[in-house]
Every structure is written in C-alpha cells, then in structure tokens.
User: Fold this.
Amino acid sequence: MVVSSRRALYAPGVIIGRWDIASLVDARFALDGGAMFGVVPRPEWERAAAPDARNRVPLLARCLLAIDRDAGRVVLVDTGPGDKWDPGRAAHDALDRAGLGLDAALARRGLGREQVTDVLLTHLHVHHAGGVTRRGPGGALELSFPRATHHLQRRHWTWAHGPSDRDGPTFTAEDFELLAHTDQLHLVEGEAEILPDVELVLCEGHTVAQQLPRFHGDQTHLTFGGDLVPTRAHLEPSWISAFDLQPVTTLEEKKMVLAEALEDDGVVAFGHDPGMAACRLGEEEGHPVFRERVEL
Ligand SMILES: [Zn+2]
Ligand SMILES: [Zn+2]
Assistant:
C-alpha cells in the first residue's frame, strides 16, 4: 500500500505524497432522483438511493481540504452551496446545514477561512460554488475566503456567463461575479499545473470544462470525482445525471478516470455521496467496480 497510514495532522484523512487530504461537508441537500440518474429506471436507482415523498434522493455537498504543510498551502476544492440561499430555493432542494458548514469543518482542523490560500473550483454550479461569497455584517457580498486565490477554468468562466436555457438555473451570478472585481481570480488555461503534484483532469460532459484535481503521490493518486462521479452509485459508467450537457462524453471520461484509478490503486473522492467520502476500486470482468470505502 503506497498511501501512507501515518497519522494525519488533521485526521481523519489520507496522505497522498505531499498532500494531507480530508473531506469536508458543507450541507445536506436532495435532488430529483430521475435527474440524478438520467436514463436509469427508478426501480434500479431506488435500490441505491431511496427517494423521499417528492422523489428526491439525499446528497451531501462534499468539498476537499488539501494541505501541503511544507509549503504552507491550504487548498479547498469547491465551497459547497454556502449560506445565502433564499428559503424557497432551500426548501426546494431540502438544503440543510445544521451541524455542518465549512466554518465548523475547518474549525475541527484548527483552521479558519482566512487561512485558506487556494480555492480550486471544479465548476460554478450552485452546489459547488455557492459558498464562494457570503453576506457580510452589513449585507454586502464578500468573498468567503478572503485571502485565497480562486482557480477556475477560463472556458468554464465564459460559459457560466452565457449558459444555455437548459443549464442556466444551475448558475447564480452572485455566487461568483464578485471575483471579477478582485485580483483573486485565476482563470486557468487547460491542464496547467497550478499546484505542485496536482494534475487537472478536464471533463466536458457534465458542463463546459469541469476541472477535477488529481493529487499525485508515490505511484498512487486521489481524484476528486466532483460531478463526474458524484456518488458511489455513479461508479456504474452509464449512470449519468440528466443535468449533464453531453452524457456520452461523460461516459467516456468516467471510464477513463476509473480505469486510471484502478491502475494506480488510487482513491476516488465523491462530490455528493450521502454515505461515504471516497473509495478504492477493484476489478470485475475487466471493469472497475467499488472495492472498499476510504475514510477521508
Ligand atoms: Zn455540476
Ligand atoms: Zn454537483
């Protein structure tokens, strides 16, 4: 086993090379099961995710905290939906942050918002980037992580400013527009190495230029699944959410990411799984399948 089991400074978590990685949960929420599983019939998906009376399946908004202690870098991958939702929309998505939230999750690791040096945004959908901004004491929007550089793909930034009618409701400008007026937005061009030993896996199926960070260690890695592999059930390549703009592209991208994880005995961290943060894969009839949960 290459992933070190030595005790992490901010346990629980795993150590991948220079990176000490933990899962942080911002909120519970729920989305329509049919939308989460696309063409999969309900009798199949409801065995994996039991829906509520309104056909919604329970989800978590999961972020990653990755710390490079030697370089003094504190990286947050996604920010969750944040706390400035209006009550109607919060009820629609069953948004619930009781006992959760990034403030509490960071505090448990002895950290505060101002210590986050980098926010790596996979994409700007509201469950991932709502927490980029929050309302300050006077009601004005402010950056939630005031000292952080925010990394986002340039092509995604452009798309988020002119999405299609189909995915427009998944973006909320007040979550991210403030970044345009700061010097804390780093628009990334493709697969640039923005952090040491971090590869950006670019995915075009879910939205335009979703970037999934892959943290490399000694012959292993951890990939944040974001909305490419949001839950354990989505390890099945054809289980693809109806939110995806190009589901067949997602299919190919997912097969690639899972095959690479299997080859490296890597960890796949889920973006929204309600029950586990991450897993390692095994092989069944030549295909990557769930093998074991990984505590992050
Ligand atoms: Zn998304
Ligand atoms: Zn998502």
